[in-house]
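Case study 2.
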Amino acid sequence: MAGTSKGEHRTGLLNGFAAYGMWGLVPLFWPLLKPAGAVEILAHRMVWSAVFVAAALLFVRRWAWAGQLLRQPRRLGLVAVAAAVITVNWGVYIWAVNSGHVVEASLGYFINPLVTIAMGVLLLKERLRPVQWAAVATGFAAVVVLTVGYGRPPWISLCLAFSFATYGLVKKKVALGGVESLAAETAMQFLPALGYLLWLVAHGGSSFVDDGPGHATLLASTGLVTALPLVCFGAAAIRVPLSTLGLLQYLAPVFQFLLGIFYFHEAMPPERWAGFGLVWLALVLLTGDALRSARRGARALKESGGVPAAVPGSPVAAGNAAATGTAVAAGAALATGAVAAGPEAESLASAPGPDPEVATP
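Prediction:
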């Protein structure tokens, strides 16, 4: 980023490492919340995240967008769809971690860029370049191999990847800033989640009430665990190039993958290694193609002295993808960081308008 001092760049990198590191290590947190079940944890995460985001909005005094949103039923409906989809994503991730499927959950965030591109082809009739076709085909082959290895489709990975890809496409249509979007979604989640928690209390099934103040504090901290990495991500996003954030994004699923193997001691027979290897090959193909396109776009900019036509996969195309919801360009951008991606990333520093594409475990 032109004009950014070395000190600012260093601060941005540290915040980027902190954000993606926390998202990568979050599988260590959810087991601490037992004996609460996945649904109770999910409900607490919704409630406390809404509380934290509301406090953040009060602090920065940004509420004008809410009135505008309420006067636009179509956008409000899209926010409701986004809230429903991210609820599925959060719930499946929490359940997967606490049920011993950390490795399979990490796979979902590895394959997310490929799923985003595939959805663009299937739903939006977008066209791919040959290398992108090869990446998607390799990803499909990986799913077949993993289906054989698991003895079933890797449904956790697919659910996480497809739910987030759908979430991203819907959010591009809504075009709200990061903190505003998260506030709107958690506001819709708040009452159902609170109602469920009150129902648990009434029926004597609430671990928040029954398991002591320490456990209650941990459940309340789900809002902080959701929001703190977002603050670090926002600090990084305004200080370092998004291409750098794109490289950092792979820290999160890599950390989760390593935790699954070495900390949770999940099995990795040869066929699963083969499936993961195919996924990583697909990401290398996709990333390499997008970087080449970005370099072509940069050369065109330098030669013309102005703004070139968007090259799919370039930062220009990524900006267009954010504005129009183009899934192929967004998927390529996810792989390179032209659109920043990472588990749970919603930039608290973003201004109203299309926000970075992000993943959310």
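The radius of gyration is 20 Å.
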